[in-house]
Amino acid sequence: MNIKALFKSMLLRKFATGLLIFQLILTLGLACNSLLLSIEANEKMSRDVGFEMDNVLAFQIRPTSEAFLDADFFLSVVEEDMAALKNLTEVELVSYSNQLPLMRGGNYHSIEDANHPEDVPVDSQFNGIPTYYTGQDFFRLLGASMHQGRDFEAADNATRGYLESMDFEPNIILTRSLAEALYPNKSAIGKQTNEGRIVGVVSDLAITPSRRYSHYGIFKFRNMARAQGRLYYLLKVTPGSEQEIKKKIISALKQVHPERDIKDIFTMKEHHSDYYKEATSLATLFSLLTAFMLFVTMISSFAHAHFHVSKQKKLIGIRRALGARKKDVLVYVMSENWLISLIAAGLGVASVIAINILLGKVITMPKPDVISYLSCVMIVFISGTLATWLPAWKTTKIAPVTATRTV
User: Record's PROSITE patterns (predicted)?
Assistant: First the structure.
């Protein structure tokens, strides 16, 4: 393979060769960043959330009657709801919460030890902690295990305490990461905080993965008893009954009180997928764009090789007449594509970095690495080789005598 002759051949078609190199460089930039987005999306989806998603249903319920503005009436209906849902044969456990794990927005509180000096600022990591108002069986329903201390008991119900006094101090449960950060190298059980006394530390749950302190959470056994607030019901159902039970849930709740808007009933797996929908959709979009660019580049590679062959039939014929084998002709024709791919691979690093920086200004982008880049180079190289193979193979079929007579 004569590299010098290949360069001369490429220079005869500067524009076409330059355009193909540019397409390859752009394709490499898109392919590498698409691969990074796909890897990150898959990594997010495969993270352990710390709770069971199988056979867990959730839905939001909103009162549409002014009667629910009365806290006592509100609580009485919730109690009837719990009883009606528990009576369904497919339901194993029922609870409620003001918000779900894997949510953006919601209730946030700050937490500090009760003895924290007033003149000392609270560490920023303890500000804006997601705060959950849940039912007694919330952790049992999700299959979350207690790391230390105990789960909520009936006596921990703080609903009435808050209704009667704003200074009420409840028993609370913290996630393990928050407890260990708040009380490093100490047990948090029994400690008094501005949010209440800690009676349990639950193993980490995926509260808000998009935030830095993604596993921080405060839990109180309390119903907010506010018609204007959010109220979610959670149900643990028997395996395989998710679809059949949805109609039964709506019917049971309407019988308790019809003047309520019941939002779509969804599984926690659907909720999990929906939380990461932005990441997965973006990865899919870029993958489709990369596939399109790769397809266009393959067409360009095919056209470039076909044009290359048509213009050099005489030279190829002379080589065949002088004893060049079909394999030699095949390699000669494909060598130009390989050389172009090699040039694009060297320059493609700049494209990958540039696209990564541009995307990083609007979304969180993982940084490119050598392995992902080399993987994309191989994909582009193989695609170009496949696109070039057909015109190269056809060239080997030309008889030496016919080729040498071609003008």
Answer: PROKAR_LIPOPROTEIN
Q: Residue 33 contacts by C-beta under 8 Å, 6 or more apart in sequence?
A: 286, 352, 355, 356, 359, 365, 368
**Chain mean position to CA 306:** 43
User: Does pTM surpass 0.85?
Assistant: no
Provide the total of helices (H) and of strands (E) in the chain, helices listed first: 13, 12
Q: DSSP 3-state assignment of 262? A: strand
In the chain, the number of structural domains is 2
107 phi and psi, to 5 degrees?
-90, 135
- Mean pLDDT confidence for 268-294: 89
Mean of pLDDT values over 55-71? 92
The 10s digit of each residue's pLDDT in 28-55 is 999 999 999 998 888 888 888 999 998 9
Give the Cα separation of 366 and 27 in Å (integer).
18
345 and 306, same structural domain? yes
Question: Residue 51: inside a domain, yes or no?
Answer: no
Report the candidate in 220, 203, 255, 275 with the shortest Cα–Cα distance to residue 50.
203
Backbone phi, psi, residue 233, to 5°: -100, 140
Q: Which domain holds residue 241?
A: 56-275
